[in-house]
Amino acid sequence: MTLVDILVVGGTALSSSLLGSVAGTGGTLVLLPVLVRYFGMQDAVSIVTLANAGANLSRTVMYWREVDRRVVGWFTLSSLPLTVLGTWLFTLTAPDLLTRLLGAFMLGMVLWRRLYATAPRKRDAKWFLPLGIGFGFLNGLVPSVGPLMAPFFLAYGLLKGSYIGTDACITVIMQVTKLAVFKSAQVLSNDIMFYGALLIPLMFVGALLGKILVDRLPAWVFALIIELTIVLAGLDFLVRG
């Protein structure tokens, strides 16, 4: 890689982490296309998974006091076995059709929220047990399910720090599981781990800058940013697969 290539990848990693820290999701959709250009799809997914694991770990630490531990517990309980299964299937094939279907579903979720808008209200955290089954499986199959999970977190009543911290805690657990499967399937080579590790400090910086912005955002602006991110991610999934 030339110096220009390194600057492009590094700058994209920083901006993707900043976006993920402000919107709570969407960073993968910024970073992944750039990595695919240099490394190919399968290696790019491995690198972005490692880099985002670092970014989400930093967000978890920053917002630890606001993490909804009941949501994390119920979601993780059911998601981990399905994450293993979905990741194993990903190592065998790239599910282009599934990614496009997810994009259509994400756009439909935003439309539904707009047509049937209600004030956020707390629900029983046990509802995240069945959600973890579906999202755990999808997390293994596709590069990012954060935008797809966002409407459910918002409907539960998570906003700003509680949203970002809870989402990050769940995501880092699933990503570490995903990386373990990649390693056992010999998809995660030493070179890929090296490139992913180089991006982690930039992801930390982006997460810190994002926290500074989130602390100054009104709740309604935060929710709007998330919805816009979901729409862009849905269009990206739908069009490009």
Walk me through what this model shows.
The chain is mainly α. It has one domain (3-240). Helix content is 81%, strand content 0%. α3 packs across α8, α3 (41-62) crosses α9 (190-214) and α4 (69-90) runs parallel beside α6 (128-141).
Feature tags:
single chain; 241 residues; globular; mainly alpha
- Overall structural class, as computed from helix and strand content, comes to mainly alpha
Tally the helices.
10
Query: How far is the first residue's CA from the last residue's CA?
Result: 26 Å
The tally of strands reads 0
The share of residues in helices is over 70%
Give a quick account of the main beta sheet: strands, pairing sense, barrel closure: none
Q: List the uncertain runs.
A: none
Name the overall outline.
globular
Note the run of SSEs as H and E: HHHHHHHHHH
Q: Calculate the mean pLDDT score and round it.
A: 78
The total domain count is 1
Strand content: under 5%
| Structural Rg | 17 Å
Short structural summary:
81% of the residues lie in helices and 0% in strands. The chain is mainly α and 241 residues long. It has one domain (3-240).
Q: Secondary structure elements and their pairing?
A:
Layout: H1 3-23, H2 27-39, H3 41-62, H4 69-90, H5 96-115, H6 128-141, H7 146-156, H8 160-184, H9 190-214, H10 219-240
Helix pairs in contact: 1-2, 1-9, 2-3, 3-8, 3-9, 4-6, 4-8, 5-10, 7-10
